[in-house]
Amino acid sequence: MFFSFVINTGVLITAKISVQAAADAAAYAGAATQARQLNAISYLNYDMRRQYKKFVYRYAFVGNVAASSFPNTGGEIAGKYGYPKSVYLSSNIGSLTSVPIKVPVVCMPITASAEVNQNCSSLNLPSSTSNIASSFSNGILTMTTAAFLEGVAKIEEMQQGLCANNGSINLFVLTEWLMRGDISPSAISSTLDSMSIKLNQAEKDKLKNNITILVQGLGLYPRNIINLMRIETLEKFLNAPAKKDVQKDTIDTLEHSSIDAEVSERTIQSFKSALSNLNNEVIPHNSVIMQELQNSNQITINPVKASFNAYVQYINGATAGNDTICNSKIIPFAAKSTPVGVVKASTTPVHYAVKIKAKAHLLFLPIRDGIELEAVAAAKPFGSRIGPAGLSESDFVENIQPGSVNGDPVNDCHDQSVKCNVPNLKVTDTETFYSQSYLKSLAAIGVENNSYNFKGMSNAMAPQPHEVGHYNIIPPPVDDMKFEFIPYGTNKDSNIYRFYAPIFTGAGNPTQKISAFMDEVFGLTQVSGTGSFGIDMMALKSTLQSQLINYVTGPMNSGQATSEHGETTTFAAIELPMAPAPSPGPIVTANPNNFWLTRSEEVISSWAPAFVRHSSGNDFKPRFGYSVKFVAMHDVLGSGMQATDDDLENVSH
Questions:
Q1: Can you give the residue range of the structural domain that contains 36?
Q2: N or C: which end of the chain has fewer CB within 10 A?
Q3: What is the pLDDT of residues 376-392, one digit of tens each?
Q4: Distances in Å between the alpha carbon of 103 and those of 106, 205, 233, 340, 436?
């Protein structure tokens, strides 16, 4: 009996240790799943900011680069570029006035190049026919002069047509930057063909090619709507209700259901990790029962949406006494409820806890079912962030009242939903995208082959000093930063990072969600008709909605090459923020940082020891993203777990 007691005691202690190890492994695996989901949310959140930076770069830089003064003159607001336009006054046709508009105005020359163009530098042009005719007293014209004026009038009519075309192109480019939902080049070509552009075929083909380059990729709305839908799915995963009485048969059933398997990944990984630590001969796996102890409100994520005016130079059509031609008007396009990021609203940290019950069979103990053992464990993701804690619309817009042209305000800002907001972002604590020093640094990078292929985009989208410490930024895949890198295709040097972030798997209907986004952006009560631009806004809504639904349910669902970067409904595919690595940015006088950052150690925003010991000494090893650590059950209770949970009542804390 004494021998049996000693043996059983040893086996029982070993079994108890095994059950506790199983609980520890289960808690760690569940928290590790949470950590990966939080990392995916943080990657998508930063990509939403990058997509917004891409739009602001296009709007503030690309859309204005054709102005003759850009970006060296016209500063009007504390170091910001004033975006001036030249205006010829009808009262004195020789009088040219420079008007500071103070906000970017999209104007892309129809000459199909990025060269300085008078159509974009000026809001109107003097009428030669009117000027010449007025120089003759009593309107007396010779036959020769009359014939000459008739020829000039025809030239001016052609010029007026080109200006009208230019206005249409300006609006088309802006709406594509905002709302392009079809990345097929043929869609751009067919749209341009439907516009009455007065160019010969060769010029049209060149224009199509350059516009296609200019608007490549999804627009701001579609791209960030897709990112936001992925984030909302991951939020649903994190808040999946705790499962009770989980057994091996439960897991087998979950794994055979694709939707349940994805939503229940945390539970599946946790239970399987527990079983891997248990000897089936001593503790039969079919006797193991796991209780998840977490509550169902682990995290609350709220979308951050920005409403702003995007200004475009559009042909006015009317002339003032026929003294000027190409009379353009600057019109605000109200972009409402643009998804630009997410913010964590809940104050309690994400955590995971389990209780494992199992029956141990002892060698000399005459109990058929064995002795029931129990263990609890808790763990949580830690050490990173999904984004700034206080993120709001004000971080993405600036309130700027535009200037006036001939006494008429460009925008009286009467629409309270957008106010005088314009899209803008801080680059450093003192510089923004509108700062002359920043615009000059982008201009110094140049334009490739004097075309619309701007080399500064990767720099403008790269990490910036104002973001460091606030976002979880994926560093470049270089030797000093090792991480799980899933290349796109077979090229290991690809700048595309792919990771699991499904769209509404078991969390809703993507078609309905897209429709809800469109209703918020365009409104439910707006009647069909034309706005200031002469376009049907309801038709635009319908087109964008159908394009986005087709993109999500079509190419993405099938994994066709027509999806951006080869993304699918299951896997997100985003550009690495620092690849291809941009050239180092200029040193900012007021801040010892560059405008854009190029080294991994400059962007680390996670907890990490300052040095890592290795065989040759100490070295700096930066990290990024969430890690996992065990926590005491007492700490879990203090972090928001409900103390009324029956499974916790008898646990010693």
A1: 2-45+227-302+348-379+628-648
A2: N
A3: 999 999 888 899 988 99
A4: 10, 32, 37, 20, 13
